[in-house]
Amino acid sequence: MFKNKKKNKNEEAFLDHKTKKTWEDAKTGKKCFMLYARSLYVTWGAREYWIWNSFKDTSDENIEVAKLSHVCWLDVRGKLKISELSPATLYEVVYEVKLTKGASGWELPVKLRLSLPNGSFQERQVSLLQKPRGQWMELNVGSFHTPDNEDDETGEVCFDFYQHGGHWKSGLVVKGAILRPRKPEPSN
């Protein structure tokens, strides 16, 4: 006979911590999120196309990163409920990635898309060809305002990092996606 095993809160927190990290911005007190690679939808995420490696994060926690072995259809997606974010806040979404020294196939730009619950979206292209190898970098997807009233916070913010082409790519490492309050532009 099967027993209905309930996960205790410590176990749930441990498992949640491996896929998502939450903290408050030191200056604003607003909520920030890091959705690690395991919590993102990675097309062709099977072992033959992506290698999932353990990585020690700056917080001394082991997380998994996704390293692209080879694929011609790149698509990494994430989403978060608007209700989890702080109200009345300008947020930005960035993917944290790096290219290995032997990375190849990045002649065409990648596309970054941010979709909001009201149906609006932002899309941009970024060339990775001249980006430095072997160091983490942030790819800015876009920014958006959360509603002022917590009762108006419904739906999800969705973000995509993709390149749908017929040529093969390799050597991309995806750590995750960060949602954080956007820093104000410096005034002159």
TrEMBL record:
Gene Ontology MF annotations: carbohydrate binding
Signal peptide range = none
Q: Name one Pfam family in it.
A: PP2
Quote the protein name from its UniProt record.
Protein PHLOEM PROTEIN 2-LIKE A1-like
**What organism, scientifically named, is this protein from?**
Gossypium gossypioides
